[in-house]
Amino acid sequence: MKNLSRPHLSTILPVILLTSGCATTGDFPSLAKRPYETGGQPSPVAEAPAPASADPSLLARLAKIVAQAEAAQPAFQIALAKAQGVARSATGAAPQSESWIAMQMEISNLERYRTPVREAMSDMDGEYRTASLAQKPADAVAIKDAMERVQAVDSLQADAVAALSGLISRR
Length: 171
What we know:
By secondary structure, the protein is mostly helical. The chain is 67% helix and 0% strand.
């Protein structure tokens, strides 16, 4: 049998919860409109500080690295023209034939001419890492801009080598 003289928790709990919402003790914020909600003058917005400029010595190093990569392009183009001539003469040649081997050697030679650009990319990575660790955002932006120029040269060279390599793989 149930004990009817004792109130059940299920009947008391809702009463406790409902009355606790009516408590008025404590320091609560006002629900009145705030000054900026009444259409008054907006508070002035603080101007962002002017971005710092990149370190001049870094800019000089970046210019040198970019120049190194761009200066390697003419020599690569000459080697590419030679490799394309070998590729034309090797058209239809069987794998492991003399002309096929000559083509492989020209592709290896092209990779050698890409070395200055790859070194420039490596130098850029080092500069970027240093600027990031030093938390110099202006330097990091300058490095990214220079890196894009070097990556453009690298992409052109990589595409040319891939096209020649594709000729060999199709045979």
